[in-house]
Structure prediction request, 566 residues.
Amino acid sequence: GLLPGLGNGHEAARFAGKVVSGVVQLATTAQDKRQTRAALLGLLPGQAGGWVADEIAACVSRLGRTARDTGQARDAPARLPPRPAGAPLADEPAGWVSWRAPAADDNHQIRGMLLRSLASQTNGRKAAGLAAAVLYARPTAEEKRQAREVLLGLLASETDGRTAAELANIVSRLGPAEDNRQTCDTLLRLLTAQSHGHAAAWLADGVIQAGPTADDQRQARGALLRLLAGQTDGHKAARLASRVSRLDPTAEDKRQARHALLALLAGQTDGQVALELARRVTRLDPTAEDKRQARHALLALLAGQTDGQVALELARRVTRLDPTAEDQRRTRDSLLRLLGHTDGPTAAGLVSWAVQLAATAEDQPQTSDALLRLLADHADGPLVSVLLGGLLRLATTAEGQRQTCNALLGLLSAGHAGACETAELVAAVVSLAATARDKRHALGALLGLLAGQADGWVASELVLGVVQLSPTAQDKRQARNALLALLAGQASGPLAARLVDSLVRLDPTASDISTWRAWEVPPTTKLLAAVRRNSELSAWLAALPALAPLSSPLVPLQNSARRWSA
Prediction:
Protein backbone atom coordinates (compact mmCIF):
# COMPACT_ATOMS: atom_id res chain seq x y z
CA GLY A 1 0.00 0.00 0.00
CA LEU A 2 3.01 2.32 0.37
CA LEU A 3 4.22 2.02 -3.22
CA PRO A 4 1.34 3.49 -5.32
CA GLY A 5 1.67 7.24 -5.76
CA LEU A 6 5.33 7.36 -4.74
CA GLY A 7 6.30 9.31 -7.82
CA ASN A 8 9.68 8.90 -9.50
CA GLY A 9 13.29 9.84 -8.88
CA HIS A 10 16.19 8.42 -6.91
CA GLU A 11 14.81 9.16 -3.43
CA ALA A 12 11.49 7.48 -4.22
CA ALA A 13 13.38 4.58 -5.77
CA ARG A 14 15.53 4.11 -2.66
CA PHE A 15 12.44 4.10 -0.44
CA ALA A 16 10.65 1.67 -2.76
CA GLY A 17 13.69 -0.58 -2.80
CA LYS A 18 13.69 -0.89 1.00
CA VAL A 19 9.94 -1.56 1.13
CA VAL A 20 9.95 -4.13 -1.66
CA SER A 21 13.10 -5.84 -0.35
CA GLY A 22 11.41 -6.29 3.03
CA VAL A 23 8.36 -7.82 1.35
CA VAL A 24 10.58 -10.22 -0.63
CA GLN A 25 12.38 -11.39 2.53
CA LEU A 26 9.03 -12.31 4.10
CA ALA A 27 8.06 -14.48 1.14
CA THR A 28 9.56 -17.82 2.19
CA THR A 29 7.35 -20.48 0.58
CA ALA A 30 6.78 -21.10 -3.13
CA GLN A 31 3.17 -19.93 -2.78
CA ASP A 32 4.26 -16.74 -0.96
CA LYS A 33 6.76 -15.97 -3.71
CA ARG A 34 4.17 -16.53 -6.43
CA GLN A 35 1.64 -14.22 -4.73
CA THR A 36 4.27 -11.57 -3.99
CA ARG A 37 5.57 -11.70 -7.56
CA ALA A 38 2.05 -11.21 -8.95
CA ALA A 39 1.37 -8.29 -6.60
CA LEU A 40 4.63 -6.52 -7.48
CA LEU A 41 4.15 -6.98 -11.21
CA GLY A 42 0.67 -5.52 -10.81
CA LEU A 43 2.25 -2.34 -9.44
CA LEU A 44 4.48 -1.76 -12.49
CA PRO A 45 1.83 -0.06 -14.70
CA GLY A 46 1.07 2.45 -11.95
CA GLN A 47 4.60 3.82 -11.70
CA ALA A 48 5.20 7.30 -13.04
CA GLY A 49 8.69 6.48 -14.25
CA GLY A 50 11.42 3.93 -14.53
CA TRP A 51 13.41 4.42 -11.31
CA VAL A 52 10.80 2.99 -8.92
CA ALA A 53 9.82 0.42 -11.54
CA ASP A 54 13.46 -0.66 -11.69
CA GLU A 55 13.48 -1.40 -7.94
CA ILE A 56 10.26 -3.40 -8.27
CA ALA A 57 11.52 -5.36 -11.28
CA ALA A 58 14.84 -6.11 -9.58
CA CYS A 59 13.06 -7.55 -6.55
CA VAL A 60 10.71 -9.60 -8.74
CA SER A 61 13.79 -11.19 -10.30
CA ARG A 62 14.89 -12.30 -6.81
CA LEU A 63 11.64 -14.22 -6.47
CA GLY A 64 12.18 -16.14 -9.70
CA ARG A 65 10.33 -15.15 -12.85
CA THR A 66 8.26 -16.95 -15.46
CA ALA A 67 7.79 -16.18 -19.15
CA ARG A 68 4.43 -14.67 -18.24
CA ASP A 69 6.11 -12.37 -15.68
CA THR A 70 8.60 -11.21 -18.31
CA GLY A 71 5.84 -10.44 -20.77
CA GLN A 72 3.92 -8.53 -18.10
CA ALA A 73 7.02 -6.46 -17.32
CA ARG A 74 7.61 -5.75 -21.03
CA ASP A 75 4.02 -4.62 -21.49
CA ALA A 76 4.18 -2.24 -18.51
CA PRO A 77 5.40 0.82 -20.52
CA ALA A 78 2.30 0.67 -22.69
CA ARG A 79 0.13 1.05 -19.60
CA LEU A 80 2.16 3.81 -17.94
CA PRO A 81 0.34 7.12 -17.37
CA PRO A 82 0.97 9.76 -20.05
CA ARG A 83 4.28 11.55 -19.52
CA PRO A 84 4.27 15.27 -18.81
CA ALA A 85 4.89 17.51 -21.79
CA GLY A 86 8.58 17.82 -22.55
CA ALA A 87 9.56 14.76 -20.51
CA PRO A 88 12.06 12.39 -22.18
CA LEU A 89 10.60 9.36 -23.89
CA ALA A 90 12.84 7.01 -21.98
CA ASP A 91 14.17 8.05 -18.60
CA GLU A 92 14.58 4.69 -16.98
CA PRO A 93 17.52 2.63 -15.71
CA ALA A 94 19.24 0.19 -18.02
CA GLY A 95 18.69 -2.62 -15.50
CA TRP A 96 14.91 -2.56 -16.03
CA VAL A 97 15.33 -2.34 -19.80
CA SER A 98 17.60 -5.41 -19.73
CA TRP A 99 15.33 -7.38 -17.40
CA ARG A 100 12.16 -6.94 -19.38
CA ALA A 101 13.53 -7.01 -22.91
CA PRO A 102 14.78 -10.49 -23.75
CA ALA A 103 13.00 -10.82 -27.08
CA ALA A 104 14.50 -9.46 -30.34
CA ASP A 105 11.31 -7.60 -31.33
CA ASP A 106 11.07 -6.02 -27.90
CA ASN A 107 14.75 -5.02 -28.08
CA HIS A 108 14.17 -3.29 -31.40
CA GLN A 109 11.24 -1.28 -30.04
CA ILE A 110 13.12 -0.29 -26.89
CA ARG A 111 16.29 0.71 -28.77
CA GLY A 112 14.20 2.91 -31.05
CA MET A 113 12.55 4.56 -28.06
CA LEU A 114 15.91 5.11 -26.34
CA LEU A 115 17.61 6.48 -29.46
CA ARG A 116 14.78 8.95 -30.12
CA SER A 117 15.08 10.19 -26.56
CA LEU A 118 18.87 10.32 -26.85
CA ALA A 119 18.72 12.37 -30.05
CA SER A 120 16.82 15.15 -28.26
CA GLN A 121 18.89 15.02 -25.07
CA THR A 122 20.98 18.04 -24.07
CA ASN A 123 22.03 16.87 -20.62
CA GLY A 124 25.31 14.98 -20.87
CA ARG A 125 24.85 12.70 -17.85
CA LYS A 126 21.30 11.72 -18.86
CA ALA A 127 22.56 11.07 -22.38
CA ALA A 128 25.26 8.77 -21.00
CA GLY A 129 22.60 6.85 -19.06
CA LEU A 130 20.38 6.48 -22.12
CA ALA A 131 23.33 5.30 -24.23
CA ALA A 132 24.18 2.74 -21.57
CA ALA A 133 20.60 1.47 -21.79
CA VAL A 134 21.01 1.16 -25.57
CA LEU A 135 24.05 -1.06 -24.98
CA TYR A 136 22.02 -3.33 -22.70
CA ALA A 137 19.44 -3.79 -25.47
CA ARG A 138 21.99 -5.30 -27.92
CA PRO A 139 22.19 -2.54 -30.54
CA THR A 140 23.09 -3.02 -34.19
CA ALA A 141 26.19 -1.38 -35.70
CA GLU A 142 24.03 1.41 -37.15
CA GLU A 143 22.36 2.05 -33.81
CA LYS A 144 25.75 2.23 -32.12
CA ARG A 145 26.86 4.79 -34.72
CA GLN A 146 23.80 6.94 -34.05
CA ALA A 147 24.41 6.85 -30.30
CA ARG A 148 28.12 7.70 -30.77
CA GLU A 149 27.33 10.73 -32.92
CA VAL A 150 25.02 12.15 -30.26
CA LEU A 151 27.53 11.53 -27.47
CA LEU A 152 30.47 12.96 -29.41
CA GLY A 153 28.45 16.09 -30.16
CA LEU A 154 27.67 16.53 -26.47
CA LEU A 155 31.24 15.73 -25.49
CA ALA A 156 32.63 18.45 -27.78
CA SER A 157 30.76 21.15 -25.83
CA GLU A 158 30.93 19.58 -22.37
CA THR A 159 32.65 21.59 -19.65
CA ASP A 160 32.07 19.36 -16.63
CA GLY A 161 34.94 16.93 -16.10
CA ARG A 162 32.94 14.11 -14.56
CA THR A 163 30.23 14.25 -17.22
CA ALA A 164 32.85 14.33 -19.97
CA ALA A 165 34.51 11.23 -18.48
CA GLU A 166 31.16 9.39 -18.37
CA LEU A 167 30.42 10.29 -21.98
CA ALA A 168 33.91 9.19 -23.04
CA ASN A 169 33.47 5.88 -21.25
CA ILE A 170 30.27 5.09 -23.15
CA VAL A 171 31.77 6.22 -26.47
CA SER A 172 34.68 3.81 -25.95
CA ARG A 173 32.22 0.98 -25.30
CA LEU A 174 30.27 1.82 -28.42
CA GLY A 175 33.39 1.84 -30.65
CA PRO A 176 34.97 2.06 -33.17
CA ALA A 177 38.56 2.97 -32.30
CA GLU A 178 38.74 5.99 -34.67
CA ASP A 179 36.22 7.85 -32.50
CA ASN A 180 38.66 7.57 -29.62
CA ARG A 181 40.89 10.22 -31.25
CA GLN A 182 38.15 12.82 -31.11
CA THR A 183 37.27 11.72 -27.57
CA CYS A 184 40.87 11.94 -26.39
CA ASP A 185 41.37 15.42 -27.90
CA THR A 186 38.24 16.72 -26.17
CA LEU A 187 39.24 15.22 -22.83
CA LEU A 188 42.76 16.64 -23.06
CA ARG A 189 41.35 20.09 -23.85
CA LEU A 190 39.18 19.91 -20.75
CA LEU A 191 41.97 18.46 -18.63
CA THR A 192 44.48 21.19 -19.43
CA ALA A 193 41.93 23.82 -18.41
CA GLN A 194 40.80 21.97 -15.29
CA SER A 195 41.37 23.40 -11.81
CA HIS A 196 39.53 20.83 -9.68
CA GLY A 197 41.34 17.69 -8.55
CA HIS A 198 38.46 15.21 -8.68
CA ALA A 199 37.28 16.40 -12.10
CA ALA A 200 40.85 16.16 -13.41
CA ALA A 201 41.09 12.57 -12.15
CA TRP A 202 37.85 11.66 -13.95
CA LEU A 203 39.10 13.26 -17.17
CA ALA A 204 42.40 11.42 -16.88
CA ASP A 205 40.44 8.16 -16.56
CA GLY A 206 38.71 9.00 -19.81
CA VAL A 207 42.03 9.71 -21.53
CA ILE A 208 43.42 6.38 -20.32
CA GLN A 209 40.37 4.50 -21.65
CA ALA A 210 40.59 6.27 -25.03
CA GLY A 211 43.90 4.61 -25.96
CA PRO A 212 46.15 7.69 -25.76
CA THR A 213 49.36 8.13 -27.74
CA ALA A 214 52.68 8.87 -26.04
CA ASP A 215 52.13 12.58 -26.68
CA ASP A 216 48.59 12.38 -25.24
CA GLN A 217 50.01 10.79 -22.12
CA ARG A 218 52.66 13.49 -21.84
CA GLN A 219 50.05 16.25 -22.05
CA ALA A 220 47.81 14.53 -19.50
CA ARG A 221 50.72 14.01 -17.09
CA GLY A 222 51.72 17.66 -17.39
CA ALA A 223 48.21 18.84 -16.55
CA LEU A 224 47.93 16.46 -13.59
CA LEU A 225 51.35 17.41 -12.21
CA ARG A 226 50.52 21.11 -12.38
CA LEU A 227 47.39 20.47 -10.35
CA LEU A 228 49.25 18.18 -7.98
CA ALA A 229 51.93 20.78 -7.25
CA GLY A 230 49.35 23.24 -5.92
CA GLN A 231 47.10 20.69 -4.21
CA THR A 232 46.32 21.10 -0.51
CA ASP A 233 43.83 18.24 -0.17
CA GLY A 234 45.61 14.95 0.54
CA HIS A 235 42.85 12.74 -0.82
CA LYS A 236 42.66 14.63 -4.12
CA ALA A 237 46.46 14.63 -4.37
CA ALA A 238 46.54 10.85 -3.98
CA ARG A 239 43.94 10.46 -6.77
CA LEU A 240 45.92 12.71 -9.10
CA ALA A 241 49.15 10.84 -8.37
CA SER A 242 47.47 7.50 -9.07
CA ARG A 243 46.49 8.76 -12.56
CA VAL A 244 50.02 10.03 -13.19
CA SER A 245 51.38 6.55 -12.44
CA ARG A 246 49.01 5.05 -15.05
CA LEU A 247 50.16 7.39 -17.83
CA ASP A 248 53.68 5.97 -18.34
CA PRO A 249 55.47 8.66 -16.28
CA THR A 250 59.13 9.51 -16.74
CA ALA A 251 61.60 9.48 -13.85
CA GLU A 252 61.23 13.27 -13.57
CA ASP A 253 57.42 12.99 -13.53
CA LYS A 254 57.64 10.48 -10.69
CA ARG A 255 60.05 12.74 -8.78
CA GLN A 256 57.68 15.71 -9.05
CA ALA A 257 54.72 13.60 -7.94
CA ARG A 258 56.65 12.18 -4.97
CA HIS A 259 57.77 15.66 -3.95
CA ALA A 260 54.18 16.92 -3.87
CA LEU A 261 52.90 13.88 -1.99
CA LEU A 262 55.66 13.99 0.63
CA ALA A 263 55.03 17.69 1.26
CA LEU A 264 51.39 16.90 2.05
CA LEU A 265 52.29 13.81 4.05
CA ALA A 266 54.63 15.79 6.33
CA GLY A 267 51.79 17.92 7.69
CA GLN A 268 49.07 15.30 7.61
CA THR A 269 46.97 14.67 10.72
CA ASP A 270 44.45 12.22 9.25
CA GLY A 271 45.74 8.66 9.47
CA GLN A 272 43.70 7.32 6.54
CA VAL A 273 44.76 10.13 4.21
CA ALA A 274 48.39 9.69 5.28
CA LEU A 275 48.17 6.00 4.42
CA GLU A 276 46.86 6.80 0.97
CA LEU A 277 49.60 9.37 0.35
CA ALA A 278 52.30 6.94 1.52
CA ARG A 279 50.83 4.19 -0.64
CA ARG A 280 51.09 6.40 -3.71
CA VAL A 281 54.66 7.36 -2.86
CA THR A 282 55.71 3.70 -2.75
CA ARG A 283 54.30 3.18 -6.27
CA LEU A 284 56.41 5.98 -7.75
CA ASP A 285 59.88 4.43 -7.31
CA PRO A 286 60.86 6.35 -4.14
CA THR A 287 64.49 6.98 -3.26
CA ALA A 288 65.97 6.09 0.12
CA GLU A 289 65.49 9.70 1.22
CA ASP A 290 61.86 9.67 0.06
CA LYS A 291 61.25 6.54 2.13
CA ARG A 292 62.91 8.11 5.16
CA GLN A 293 60.67 11.17 4.94
CA ALA A 294 57.58 9.01 4.55
CA ARG A 295 58.57 6.85 7.54
CA HIS A 296 59.19 9.94 9.67
CA ALA A 297 55.70 11.29 8.91
CA LEU A 298 53.97 7.97 9.53
CA LEU A 299 55.82 7.35 12.80
CA ALA A 300 54.82 10.79 14.07
CA LEU A 301 51.18 9.94 13.34
CA LEU A 302 51.53 6.50 14.88
CA ALA A 303 52.90 7.91 18.14
CA GLY A 304 49.70 9.86 18.76
CA GLN A 305 47.28 7.36 17.29
CA THR A 306 44.29 6.21 19.38
CA ASP A 307 42.61 3.97 16.80
CA GLY A 308 44.11 0.48 16.90
CA GLN A 309 43.06 -0.43 13.37
CA VAL A 310 44.55 2.72 11.86
CA ALA A 311 47.70 2.11 13.90
CA LEU A 312 48.00 -1.35 12.38
CA GLU A 313 47.72 0.06 8.87
CA LEU A 314 50.33 2.70 9.65
CA ALA A 315 52.69 0.03 11.04
CA ARG A 316 52.27 -2.11 7.93
CA ARG A 317 53.05 0.84 5.71
CA VAL A 318 56.18 1.71 7.74
CA THR A 319 57.50 -1.84 7.33
CA ARG A 320 57.26 -1.45 3.53
CA LEU A 321 59.49 1.62 3.56
CA ASP A 322 62.77 -0.06 4.57
CA PRO A 323 62.63 0.90 8.28
CA THR A 324 65.76 1.06 10.41
CA ALA A 325 66.04 -0.85 13.68
CA GLU A 326 65.12 2.33 15.55
CA ASP A 327 62.06 2.82 13.31
CA GLN A 328 60.95 -0.73 14.08
CA ARG A 329 61.41 -0.14 17.81
CA ARG A 330 59.33 3.03 17.72
CA THR A 331 56.63 1.26 15.73
CA ARG A 332 56.57 -1.63 18.19
CA ASP A 333 56.36 0.66 21.22
CA SER A 334 53.43 2.56 19.69
CA LEU A 335 51.54 -0.67 19.05
CA LEU A 336 52.18 -1.96 22.58
CA ARG A 337 50.95 1.34 24.03
CA LEU A 338 47.59 0.84 22.30
CA LEU A 339 47.17 -2.74 23.49
CA GLY A 340 45.92 -1.76 26.92
CA HIS A 341 42.92 -0.04 25.33
CA THR A 342 42.09 -2.54 22.57
CA ASP A 343 40.61 -6.02 22.37
CA GLY A 344 39.31 -8.48 19.81
CA PRO A 345 40.90 -9.00 16.38
CA THR A 346 42.57 -5.59 16.50
CA ALA A 347 44.43 -6.54 19.69
CA ALA A 348 45.55 -9.79 18.08
CA GLY A 349 46.88 -7.80 15.14
CA LEU A 350 48.74 -5.37 17.40
CA VAL A 351 50.44 -8.22 19.27
CA SER A 352 51.29 -10.04 16.06
CA TRP A 353 52.99 -6.99 14.57
CA ALA A 354 54.74 -6.10 17.84
CA VAL A 355 56.21 -9.59 17.94
CA GLN A 356 57.16 -9.45 14.27
CA LEU A 357 58.98 -6.17 14.84
CA ALA A 358 61.00 -7.65 17.74
CA ALA A 359 63.63 -8.96 15.38
CA THR A 360 66.82 -8.80 17.46
CA ALA A 361 67.94 -10.71 20.55
CA GLU A 362 67.67 -7.46 22.50
CA ASP A 363 64.18 -6.62 21.23
CA GLN A 364 62.59 -9.94 22.13
CA PRO A 365 63.03 -9.82 25.93
CA GLN A 366 61.99 -6.16 25.95
CA THR A 367 58.80 -7.04 24.07
CA SER A 368 58.17 -10.02 26.37
CA ASP A 369 58.50 -7.77 29.42
CA ALA A 370 56.02 -5.32 27.94
CA LEU A 371 53.52 -8.09 27.19
CA LEU A 372 53.92 -9.50 30.71
CA ARG A 373 53.22 -6.08 32.25
CA LEU A 374 50.07 -5.85 30.15
CA LEU A 375 49.11 -9.37 31.16
CA ALA A 376 49.48 -8.52 34.85
CA ASP A 377 47.08 -5.60 34.37
CA HIS A 378 44.57 -7.64 32.33
CA ALA A 379 44.82 -11.09 33.93
CA ASP A 380 41.05 -11.46 34.11
CA GLY A 381 40.05 -10.12 30.69
CA PRO A 382 39.84 -10.98 26.99
CA LEU A 383 43.42 -9.87 26.32
CA VAL A 384 44.89 -12.90 28.13
CA SER A 385 44.70 -15.22 25.13
CA VAL A 386 46.15 -12.64 22.75
CA LEU A 387 49.02 -11.69 25.06
CA LEU A 388 49.89 -15.31 25.79
CA GLY A 389 50.05 -16.03 22.08
CA GLY A 390 52.61 -13.27 21.68
CA LEU A 391 54.65 -14.44 24.66
CA LEU A 392 54.83 -18.00 23.34
CA ARG A 393 56.05 -16.74 19.96
CA LEU A 394 58.79 -14.71 21.65
CA ALA A 395 60.03 -17.55 23.88
CA THR A 396 62.37 -19.02 21.29
CA THR A 397 65.28 -20.02 23.58
CA ALA A 398 65.41 -22.39 26.57
CA GLU A 399 66.21 -19.49 28.89
CA GLY A 400 63.43 -17.38 27.42
CA GLN A 401 60.94 -20.20 27.90
CA ARG A 402 62.04 -20.68 31.52
CA GLN A 403 61.77 -16.98 32.33
CA THR A 404 58.34 -16.66 30.72
CA CYS A 405 57.11 -19.79 32.47
CA ASN A 406 58.20 -18.45 35.86
CA ALA A 407 56.54 -15.12 35.13
CA LEU A 408 53.26 -16.84 34.28
CA LEU A 409 53.42 -18.91 37.46
CA GLY A 410 53.86 -15.65 39.35
CA LEU A 411 50.72 -14.27 37.71
CA LEU A 412 48.80 -17.40 38.69
CA SER A 413 49.92 -17.08 42.29
CA ALA A 414 48.66 -13.48 42.38
CA GLY A 415 45.14 -14.93 42.27
CA HIS A 416 43.60 -12.34 39.95
CA ALA A 417 42.79 -14.71 37.09
CA GLY A 418 39.36 -16.28 36.72
CA ALA A 419 38.78 -19.88 35.69
CA CYS A 420 38.91 -19.23 31.93
CA GLU A 421 42.07 -17.13 32.19
CA THR A 422 43.62 -19.71 34.55
CA ALA A 423 43.02 -22.40 31.93
CA GLU A 424 44.93 -20.38 29.34
CA LEU A 425 47.76 -19.52 31.72
CA VAL A 426 48.11 -23.15 32.81
CA ALA A 427 48.16 -24.34 29.19
CA ALA A 428 50.94 -21.83 28.44
CA VAL A 429 52.94 -22.99 31.49
CA VAL A 430 52.69 -26.62 30.36
CA SER A 431 53.80 -25.63 26.86
CA LEU A 432 56.83 -23.69 28.14
CA ALA A 433 58.02 -26.32 30.66
CA ALA A 434 60.21 -28.22 28.21
CA THR A 435 62.80 -30.00 30.40
CA ALA A 436 62.24 -32.43 33.26
CA ARG A 437 63.59 -29.85 35.67
CA ASP A 438 61.23 -27.16 34.37
CA LYS A 439 58.26 -29.52 34.55
CA ARG A 440 59.07 -30.44 38.14
CA HIS A 441 59.30 -26.77 39.08
CA ALA A 442 55.99 -25.93 37.36
CA LEU A 443 54.30 -28.97 38.91
CA GLY A 444 55.36 -27.92 42.41
CA ALA A 445 54.04 -24.43 41.83
CA LEU A 446 50.65 -25.68 40.57
CA LEU A 447 50.31 -28.11 43.49
CA GLY A 448 51.04 -25.28 45.90
CA LEU A 449 48.35 -23.16 44.26
CA LEU A 450 45.90 -26.05 44.33
CA ALA A 451 46.41 -26.68 48.05
CA GLY A 452 45.30 -23.20 48.99
CA GLN A 453 42.64 -22.75 46.31
CA ALA A 454 39.13 -21.84 47.43
CA ASP A 455 37.62 -21.52 43.94
CA GLY A 456 36.59 -24.94 42.68
CA TRP A 457 36.46 -23.89 39.03
CA VAL A 458 40.01 -22.56 39.19
CA ALA A 459 41.10 -25.71 41.02
CA SER A 460 39.76 -27.92 38.22
CA GLU A 461 41.85 -25.96 35.70
CA LEU A 462 44.96 -26.33 37.86
CA VAL A 463 44.41 -30.10 37.92
CA LEU A 464 44.48 -30.18 34.13
CA GLY A 465 47.95 -28.68 34.30
CA VAL A 466 49.10 -31.04 37.04
CA VAL A 467 48.23 -34.18 35.10
CA GLN A 468 50.20 -32.97 32.05
CA LEU A 469 53.45 -32.42 33.99
CA SER A 470 54.35 -36.06 34.76
CA PRO A 471 53.14 -36.13 38.39
CA THR A 472 54.21 -38.89 40.77
CA ALA A 473 51.75 -40.95 42.83
CA GLN A 474 52.43 -38.67 45.79
CA ASP A 475 51.76 -35.59 43.62
CA LYS A 476 48.42 -37.03 42.58
CA ARG A 477 47.57 -37.87 46.19
CA GLN A 478 48.30 -34.26 47.15
CA ALA A 479 46.06 -32.97 44.34
CA ARG A 480 43.26 -35.40 45.28
CA ASN A 481 43.32 -34.20 48.88
CA ALA A 482 42.83 -30.64 47.71
CA LEU A 483 39.86 -31.64 45.54
CA LEU A 484 38.29 -33.77 48.31
CA ALA A 485 38.45 -30.80 50.69
CA LEU A 486 36.63 -28.67 48.12
CA LEU A 487 34.06 -31.39 47.46
CA ALA A 488 33.23 -31.73 51.14
CA GLY A 489 32.30 -28.08 51.44
CA GLN A 490 30.76 -27.60 48.00
CA ALA A 491 27.08 -26.71 47.70
CA SER A 492 26.96 -26.21 43.91
CA GLY A 493 25.87 -29.26 41.94
CA PRO A 494 27.54 -28.30 38.60
CA LEU A 495 30.81 -27.41 40.31
CA ALA A 496 30.76 -30.58 42.41
CA ALA A 497 30.29 -32.59 39.21
CA ARG A 498 33.29 -30.79 37.68
CA LEU A 499 35.42 -31.59 40.73
CA VAL A 500 34.39 -35.25 40.58
CA ASP A 501 35.42 -35.32 36.92
CA SER A 502 38.79 -33.79 37.87
CA LEU A 503 39.23 -36.43 40.57
CA VAL A 504 38.97 -39.17 37.94
CA ARG A 505 42.12 -37.80 36.26
CA LEU A 506 44.19 -38.29 39.45
CA ASP A 507 44.03 -42.09 39.87
CA PRO A 508 41.60 -42.12 42.87
CA THR A 509 41.52 -45.10 45.27
CA ALA A 510 38.83 -46.57 47.51
CA SER A 511 39.82 -44.38 50.44
CA ASP A 512 39.14 -41.24 48.37
CA ILE A 513 35.42 -41.99 48.10
CA SER A 514 34.84 -42.91 51.74
CA THR A 515 33.26 -39.48 52.36
CA TRP A 516 31.07 -39.46 49.28
CA ARG A 517 27.86 -39.00 51.30
CA ALA A 518 28.97 -35.46 52.13
CA TRP A 519 29.27 -34.57 48.45
CA GLU A 520 26.64 -32.59 46.59
CA VAL A 521 26.68 -35.21 43.81
CA PRO A 522 27.23 -38.97 44.08
CA PRO A 523 30.27 -40.72 42.59
CA THR A 524 29.91 -41.21 38.84
CA THR A 525 30.37 -44.45 36.94
CA LYS A 526 33.68 -43.14 35.62
CA LEU A 527 34.91 -42.34 39.12
CA LEU A 528 33.91 -45.77 40.43
CA ALA A 529 35.65 -47.47 37.48
CA ALA A 530 38.81 -45.46 38.18
CA VAL A 531 38.66 -46.34 41.90
CA ARG A 532 38.30 -50.02 41.12
CA ARG A 533 41.21 -49.86 38.68
CA ASN A 534 43.52 -48.16 41.20
CA SER A 535 42.58 -50.09 44.37
CA GLU A 536 43.58 -53.43 45.81
CA LEU A 537 40.77 -55.97 45.63
CA SER A 538 40.51 -56.14 49.39
CA ALA A 539 40.17 -52.35 49.67
CA TRP A 540 37.54 -52.32 46.95
CA LEU A 541 35.50 -55.08 48.61
CA ALA A 542 35.68 -53.26 51.93
CA ALA A 543 34.30 -50.12 50.33
CA LEU A 544 31.35 -51.80 48.63
CA PRO A 545 28.93 -51.75 51.63
CA ALA A 546 29.29 -47.97 51.88
CA LEU A 547 28.52 -47.73 48.15
CA ALA A 548 25.33 -49.81 48.36
CA PRO A 549 22.98 -46.77 48.46
CA LEU A 550 24.25 -45.83 44.98
CA SER A 551 22.18 -48.67 43.55
CA SER A 552 19.02 -46.77 44.52
CA PRO A 553 17.57 -44.55 41.75
CA LEU A 554 16.71 -41.96 44.40
CA VAL A 555 20.32 -41.12 45.18
CA PRO A 556 20.79 -38.41 42.55
CA LEU A 557 17.45 -36.79 43.53
CA GLN A 558 18.24 -36.88 47.22
CA ASN A 559 21.70 -35.43 46.76
CA SER A 560 20.44 -32.59 44.62
CA ALA A 561 17.93 -31.60 47.32
CA ARG A 562 20.05 -31.96 50.45
CA ARG A 563 23.37 -33.25 51.77
CA TRP A 564 23.62 -36.90 52.72
CA SER A 565 24.13 -37.39 56.42
CA ALA A 566 26.83 -39.81 57.42
In short: The radius of gyration is 37 Å.
